[in-house]
Each structure stands twice: as C-alpha cells, then as structure tokens.
C-alpha cells in the first residue's frame, strides 16, 4: 500500500501546503476519476489486523500436536503389522482429538468475526463539489471529510476547519479527556516556552498534534472538515497494528557474515533450524502446559521404544518375530502413552470456555485459559476496566463554605439514582467527617463506614433527603446546564437514560437534571442563547450568552419572574462561563452571590485553590463555573464572520476581542469535582488477586495525580504509603517519562516494579511487559485501546475489552465482552480450576499407565513351554482400559468444581507446570501400588490355584491347558478396571480422604453426597464398574476378543486387592497431611494487601445489617425511576422550590 508523500508531516504544514502536496481542492474535493485512481494506488482504507484464521490453518495446527504425532507413529506401526483393530482404534482417537480441538478453535474464531466491526462503516466526503456518503473502505488520501458530533473519524485527517471540535482519542493515546482541535500549524513543543514551535515530527507526540484527527477516534462535540492524509495501515492506528503483528527475529539468528563473522551463517542457520523444529514439535513455543505436555509426549515415545526393545529382547530377537510378540511390544509401548489425554484436555477446555462465555469471557485460544492459572501479574488499563468509563459529578463547592456530595449513584447517566447531601465546611479541628477521604469509591456506592457506627446517635436517625435547592445552588445549576452542549434524555423504548456529548459536560448536565434544571427544561422556560464562545484548549474555558425569559413568560409558566433561578426576568443578557479553575479565577472580580458575596482577593484565591487541590487529591477533575449579568442586550459579532473558516495563521481578532469583553469581571459561582468512578466490584477483585498471589499494576494515560488517587481508591496502592518499605514507596507510582528514561539494568535493579505508571505510551507498556518477563513473571495484559495492542500481543496472556478497538481484540487471546475487571478474576479462577483438574486427570491417566507398564514388564517373566512370554493382560484389554475405562472418569475429573482454596494458593510454577513434586510422587506411588496389586492377583490365580500352569500358545487362542492363564487375565482385567475407576473418585482431592472430601461437612458419613456432587464422574465410575461383567462373561467376546474367560472364586481376590489399593491410597494421603509434605502452601499476606480495605467495606455493605437500608434504597430508586419517567415527559414544567428566595442585586459591571 503506497503512502501519500509530504515534505514534512502534515501537522507541520499549512492547509495550503497539504492541499498542494496531495493534489486536492478544499472547496471541491477530489474528482470521481481521481478518487478511483487513488483507490488503486493506495488500496482500501482498512486495517490489516489479521482478521480470522483460515480453517485449514486451524486444522493443521491441531494435527501438529506432539501427542497426535506420537499417536500417528503408533497407528502406522499397528497397520504395518496388519493389526487393523488396534490401528483403527488409534485412528479413531486421533480423529476425536483433532475434531474436538478444531471445532472449539474454529467456533471461537467465528465468535470473534461477529465481534469485529468496522470502526466507521461510512464517511461523508466532498467529491466533484458535492457531499456524498461512501463506504469507509473507499476513502482515499486527498478526500475532504466532513466530521460532526458522533462520527468516527474514517482516516487520519489534517483539519482546516474546526468549530468547537472535540475528539475522544482515549483508544489511541489513553488520554480520557477529549482533545480540543484547532487548524493552525503553530504547534508548540510540550514543556517548552511559548516561543518554541515544533519543527519536526519527533518534537511532538501524537496526542499534542491538535490539528490532526485520527482514524478510529470519535467526535464528541462540534464539527469540522479536513484533508485525508493517510488511510489504512498508513494511519497511526495502522502503524500500531503493524507493530503488533510484526515478527521479531531472536538474537543470534542473523546470517550476516560481514557483521558477525564468517561462522555466523552456519550458527544462524543451525539456530533457525532449531527454532523451526522446536516450533513444529511444540517444544519451544506455547504456554507452559503445552510445552510440558509436548516434552512428556516425546519422553513417553522414547520410553515406548525402549519397552518394545525390552519385549523383543526377552523373546530373544527371534527372526522372524511372531506377530503376537510384535503386537505385545506395540501394546506395551502404547500402555505408557495416555492416548486419551489430548481429548480429555481439549474437552475439559471446551467445557471451561463454554462456562466462561456465559460469564462474558470469549476465549480465542484454548491454551490461554490454562495459562491464566499461572498468572503472577496483571497489567491493567484504568479507563473502562478498573473504572466505569463515565464521568460523574461527585463534589460541588459553593462559596463561602457549602459542599454538596453525590452519594449512591450507581448509574452515571441516571439523574434520579442517588442523592445530593449538603454539609457546611467545618473549621480545622472540628471538620465534619468526609467519607471520600476514607474511601471515595465506597462513598459513591455505599457511603463507606456508617458514621452512626462510630458515633451512635442518641435519638432516631434522620431520614435521607436531597439537599435543599438554595438560591446559590439554583444559580449554579443554571450556569452548569446552559454552558453545556450535552443532552440527557429518558428513552421509553429501552427504559434507560441516554446521553450525547462530551463526558464532562454529560456529568454536569446529569447533575443539573437531579433538580430538574436541565438545559432543555430551562430553554423551554424562555431562556434563549444569543452567542457561544466554544471551548479553547489554549485558554481552557467556554462561555455562552443567554437572554433570560421575560416577566410575562415567567408568569405564564406559573413561576416567579426570575425564572426560578435567581435572575431578574427584566434584566439584560447573562454570561455563563466554565473551565479550568486557574483560568476562571483570573477573570473573576467577585465570589459568591447575595449577602455572602465577596471581592476576589489573593487570600480568597488561595482558599479556592486549596479547595481545588482537595478535590483533585480525590481523583477528581475540577472545573470552575462563573457568570456575569451583561449591561443591556448583548449583540453578538457577525455570525457569518464567526462561522467562516479562517486560514491557518490568521488571527480572528474581532472574535477574540468580543470574547475578551464578555469573559471579564465574572462572579465565581462554585467549583465542581468530576471523576470517573471505579467499578463497585474492582476493589474486591483486586483483593482476590492479592490473596491469590497476583499483583495488579495500573498502566494508564491519565494524569499522575488522577492515576494515584484512583489507584488508592481501588486498593492498588495503600492510602498510607508508610506501610510500604522505603525502597518500594519511592517507585510504586511513576510517570512514563521517568520509567522510559531508565535503562533495563536500572529497571531490574528496582526492588519492586511500579504498581502505577501514568501517562503511558505504547512503548512504556511493552517495556513493562519485558521487565516483568525478565523477573520470570507470567503476566496478563488488559486493555481496550489501539495503544494497548503491542503490549497485548507481547504479554503471556492478552486480554482485550469487547468494546475496545479491533486491533486490540485481534492482538489478544481473550476478549471480555462486559469490560469488567472482575471477569478477569473469574477467568483466572476458571484457569486455576482447569489447572487443578488437569493435574487430577493427568495423575489419573499416568498412574494407571505406570501400573500397566509395571504389570506388562513383570509379565514378560511368565514364559510358557515354548519360551515365549505369556501376556498377563492382552493387547485389546490394554486398549479397552486406556480408551474406555480411563477416558470417561478423566472427563469427569475435568468437570470438577474449584475447591474453596483455589484462590488462596500462589500461582503455579510455570517451570514445573502440571508436574509438581506432589504429582510426580503420587504418580509413582499409586502406579507402583496398582502394578503390585494386579501382578499379585495374576500370581495368586496361576500359581496359587493352578500350580503355575501357563499352557501352550495361550497368547493366540483358548485351549484347555490355557484355562489358568485366561482366568488370571480376567481377574487382572477386572481388578485393573476397578482400581482405575476408584482412583478417579480418590483423585477428586489429591490430599483429603475420599470419605470426607469437604472438611466443613458435619455429617457422619458424607461419602455418597460428596461423590454424587459431580454426577458425570459418579455415573462414569458406576457404569464402568458394572461394565466389567459383560466383558468377562459374554461368550465369544471374552475368549476370542479379550483373550480371557469367565471367573468365579477369583472375584474374592479382585475385591480383596481393590480394598488393599484403596487403603494404600488413603494411607499415603494421611502421611501427606500428617507430615505436611508436598503441600501447596497458602499465600502469606503482609501488613498490607492490594484491595483489602475496599473489599472489607464492600463485603461489610453486603451484610445482613444493611438489608433494611438496601430494601429502602430499592423502593426509593423504584419510586424515583417512576418519577423520572414523568419528569422526562414534562421537562418544561418546573415548579419553584419552597426554599426559593430572591437573590440580592448583583454588583455593577
């Protein structure tokens, strides 16, 4: 795909220079013919993020599995010696394994195809002098694009017209606040003095190129036009997508002999060959479990070859070898290979992914679910993951000392959820308790620890009520509603509140709506907008001018002549302004209204700034709101002149002069603290991670103070940093610029990696991932923006949000459709459940294989008159036990529920994986016990009853001299089947007794209840126990197929040995418990744990003591929702509050 060529980056050029370089016309746009030519040159405007994986790629990937390759080899040998039954069974096993894996992975890809949606399906462009709508893919460089509120920008655009244009670039840069756009090319270098202009692309980052609009970002307000300068993979989003999928060659793989020496081509070729073979065989790439199972498969394969050689050696390598000896050798080799392991593992993962899909987690890669169980660190984005991704007014300060607090607001868009409480600002030493200083998140949700618990009231508790609508608050609401472009409405069809506009303005509009003073209702009263001075990022404020309703209009609406807002209806125009606190204070001459009004002095300004700092320390974005009555009717400047686009560099002096005349001698009405509330479940989820030995890191593009405050709220860092060691406290929160300046050696020298990194760039997140990897951590990276994609692809487990960008979802292995952090914890818990269950059925399968091998190898010593070994168990009996007897109980073990302590253990060691010391020890103990019991059974039957008569040619057919061997085989087959089946019940818990699996159960004999809890496993074992009888007694099937015959007294030996085996297992479990050996110890909690404080308050709020208040709140919210519907229908019918008073006359201006 060709890229458009410019002498410098377009943001450094004037509009005219961009126009000439790309060959377009800002007034007419491209011609249709020119657009068609550019379409051929530049290709479609689409991101090549890999899309779906082809079905044949998935199929080949399933075939190239280590265990499947070993089974292929065994199948070929079976067919080679004309043993079609055994070969057919192995072929069926291979087909089953491949089919299950293919079906699940292909289904996951189809699910992802449904999630992939074009960011902007169509775009409005100017061609041939006319505005037309074209598919997003047909946008080409040089197109003139029209942008309006709500549009997704279709490509990278150099703006030449921007009318109050704000774009949400959080998905690209991580910055939560929408960016105000301009058209001039006088871009300043951040952090430099005002005279330093950017001269090259490296001087200014993407976020500061404010005359550019980027592909996939969203227009939050205003409108604009621009020239498309990059499409598809040439856009900034495309570059990130390309870096995500770019392959990086490992060190030492170069073939450059000039740079590395003459021997380098040989070394490079050898290492590349090693990489290819390791990747093909699954020994170097994949999750820890995949690599471990691949190594196990090849180890068992070589063991099988060794066992075959032993079989041939015992039979003296006679030539030609009898067919039965070859089959026995193959069967002995197959006995050590758990043929059903891949199928059991895959089906267990299918069940887990189905469970997770119901819990809003889409698993794109089966291996990712297993990998989650070993996660030691989670690197999470803030906006939308830890927080709700929506702004809400939390605090309002009205001079001289009134503070209003919003509590109980569960939905930022619903103005009738929660209450507004007022409290005077107490003097130092007697300040009223502020819940936000204790826990801001809980103040919003549950009000923290109730004050009455600390200071019990002496009388009845007062009822919760909304703060009174005072004249000061009324005027503040008027300004907040009118100096605002957002809308809030109730949708009857969806029975929900809908909002449009920039999140900060939505929060203000929702707050005004709580007192039915929203913009629509106010304008219905007769307030008429005369002028607007849009938000300007250089001065960080916006203003509007309104004419109040006339006295007659106020009288018709059955309200006072001030319109219900403390403004004289016969007065002249009114100016309303909002913006950054420092900028607004510089324009204010007075503070407050009425009798409490004061002059703006230096001392007053310091007090207001201190109040702003107080709000900001709580993670809130603070704005100031002011107003001013205008002398006479305001006459706006020429509207045509105002709305005409100016060339870059031209100074709209008339508009600036008009704005300067309006924005002066203002009256400060108050401050408002707005913040993005953390999700209610975030803090308990982080605490759950802490108890599971998982550290949570927050990597965000937000301001450091905001990031630090939110991190304290959700419990990522402690409220009191003094609880941390001195070497950790200094680096627990870092800015990305400081982190990026550090070398790898300096990062590795840190005692602990930062828990919070603010102002993150994509490279910062990737460096964090690599730093964790150097510390041998197994990390999960969560994110939703395009800027998260590189780190998602490099992390061990990438977790994308369903509402995030397509690039992020394509780079991740797991997608959360509900975007919630607690879904990650649920996925980790499911991953740990999967890991424990994998351990259980691996132990079940491999211990039985060890027992079979012991029996078969020892059985080589039983030789008949001809010198050939007599099989203590026939080849078909081995396959029956391995494929039928073992498989279904193993499936049942894969469905076991997580035990109560699954999230109290540390993450498993990825270097050991499934095969911990306990699993290896158990496998050998139980395998030896099983092999010994079955071997003793064979000896007792043959030598104890029949004097060691081994007959003649008993491996081939039944004869009277073979009666002893055939009866012994039947007893061994029945016993081995029962031992394997009962061990499945024993392995429901590899440490606790089967007779009391639940330590909290107080019943006298809970065995049946505990076993029946997993019904699939219960019936798999029960049916398997009964299935022994038909295989032993059905004529022809027993003697001609399984090579055994009916038995009678031998059942006593079988039952006795089975009891002995169960006693042996219970004894070994008792030893492990008694001496506390081979145990996975619980995570040791320190003096402080992440999320502990918030989780304690969360669970306390869920207690029985709060049921009454919850029910009361439910009734209140139900009533308020009903009221909100009626209020939404009659937005213009406003009644004056009983506390309404006339505001005193305002100072002259």
UniProtKB/TrEMBL annotation:
Organism superkingdom: Eukaryota
Swiss-Prot/TrEMBL catalytic activity: K(+)(in) + ATP + H2O = K(+)(out) + ADP + phosphate + H(+); Na(+)(in) + ATP + H2O = Na(+)(out) + ADP + phosphate + H(+)
CC cofactor: Mg(2+)
GO molecular function: ATP binding; ATP hydrolysis activity; metal ion binding; P-type sodium transporter activity
GO cellular component, one term: plasma membrane
Keyword terms of this UniProt record: ATP-binding, Cell membrane, Ion transport, Magnesium, Membrane, Metal-binding, Nucleotide-binding, Potassium, Potassium transport, Sodium, Sodium transport, Translocase, Transmembrane, Transmembrane helix, Transport
Annotated region described as Disordered, given as residue ranges: 409-459, 1121-1149
Topology with respect to the bilayer: Multi-pass membrane protein
Family to which this protein belongs: Belongs to the cation transport ATPase (P-type) (TC 3.A.3) family. Type IID subfamily.
Transmembrane residue ranges: 63-82, 88-106, 296-314, 326-351, 841-862, 868-893, 914-946, 966-987, 1016-1036, 1048-1068
Single GO biological process annotation from the record: potassium ion transport
Gene3D superfamilies linked: Calcium-transporting ATPase, cytoplasmic domain N, Calcium-transporting ATPase, cytoplasmic transduction domain A, Calcium-transporting ATPase, transmembrane domain, HAD superfamily/HAD-like
InterPro entries assigned: ATPase_P-typ_cation-transptr_C, ATPase_P-typ_cation-transptr_N, ATPase_P-typ_cyto_dom_N, ATPase_P-typ_P_site, ATPase_P-typ_TM_dom_sf, ATPase_P-typ_transduc_dom_A_sf, ATPase_P-type_domA, HAD-like_sf
Positions with biased composition (Polar residues): 1133-1149
Residue ranges occupied by any Cation-transporting P-type ATPase N-terminal domain in the UniProt entry: 9-83
A Pfam family per the record: Cation_ATPase_C
EC number: 7.2.2.3
Biased composition (Basic and acidic residues): 428-440
Compartments (UniProt record): Cell membrane
UniProt protein name: P-type Na(+) transporter
Database matches in SUPFAM superfamilies: Calcium ATPase, transduction domain A (SSF81653), Calcium ATPase, transmembrane domain M (SSF81665), HAD-like (SSF56784), Metal cation-transporting ATPase, ATP-binding domain N (SSF81660)
